[in-house]
Amino acid sequence: MEPNHGDYVIVKAKEQGVQVIGLTRGHDTKFHHMEKLDKNEVLICQFTDHTSAIKVRGKATVMTKYGNIETTE
């Protein structure tokens, strides 16, 4: 089985305490990982065999190959 090397997403926090949550693949979607970012911290995330979605809580810039998204909380 070949590893799944999915797209990357970059999250830059615009305030203290931004949460980035990874959600699982499969029949039941569950939280499997969470990071809390301080203002101006950057997290690079990747979609994998285990991660099907990424949820962002708080004010942040989310950068993808499709463009940038500003969250507004």
Mind explaining what this structure looks like?
This protein is mainly β and 73 residues long. The protein has a single domain, classed as TRAP-like (Immunoglobulin-like, Sandwich). The protein has strands spanning 8-13, 18-24, 31-37, 42-46, 51-57, 60-64, 67-70. Strands 4-1-6-7 form a four-stranded antiparallel sheet, with no helix packed on it. Strands 3-2-5 form a three-stranded antiparallel sheet, with no helix packed on it. β6 (60-64) and β7 (67-70) form a beta hairpin. It is globular and about 35 Å long. The mean pLDDT is 87.
Element layout with pairings:
Blueprint: E1 8-13, E2 18-24, E3 31-37, E4 42-46, E5 51-57, E6 60-64, E7 67-70
Antiparallel strand pairs: 1-4, 1-6, 2-3, 2-5, 6-7
Features:
73 residues; mainly beta; Immunoglobulin-like; four-stranded antiparallel β-sheet; three-stranded antiparallel β-sheet; 0% helix; 56% strand
